[in-house]
Amino acid sequence: MNSQTLKGNWNQMKGAVKQKWADLTDDDMMHIEGDRDKLVGRVQERYGHSREDAERDVDEWRRENQY
């Protein structure tokens, strides 16, 4: 799935993202706007993960949820 698809489904995905990463704020969600790299960055920032761990976490979540 490409980043355009992620952006196109963003409104539907917000709830699932908040369920997985509850520490993300509404402002974070507005900033992310369905951009994978922004989501990875915010997960990294909020949870103190390395970039690689945050990317792996986001990609695993996308596979599990078919996004």
Descriptive tags:
67 residues, mainly alpha, Protein Yjbj, Chain: A, 5 helices, globular
Structure description:
By secondary structure, the protein is mainly alpha-helical. It has a single domain (3-65), classed as Orthogonal Bundle (Protein Yjbj, Chain: A), CATH 1.10.1470.10. The protein is built from 5 helices and no strands. It has helices at residues 3-8, 10-20, 26-32, 36-47, 51-65. Helix 3 (26-32) packs antiparallel against helix 4 (36-47) and helix 4 packs across helix 5.
Distance between the termini: 7 Å
Assess the beta-strand content as a share of residues. Answer: under 5%
Q: CATH H-level name... which superfamily? A: YjbJ
CATH class: Mainly Alpha
SSE-based structural type: mainly alpha
| Silhouette | globular
Number of domains: 1
Q: What's the helix count? A: 5
Q: How many strand elements?
A: 0
Q: From the coordinates shown, what is the CATH architecture? A: Orthogonal Bundle
Sheet with the most strands, sense and barrel status: none
The Rg value, from CA coordinates, equals 11 Å
Give the low-pLDDT segments: none
User: Helicity range of the residues?
Assistant: over 70%
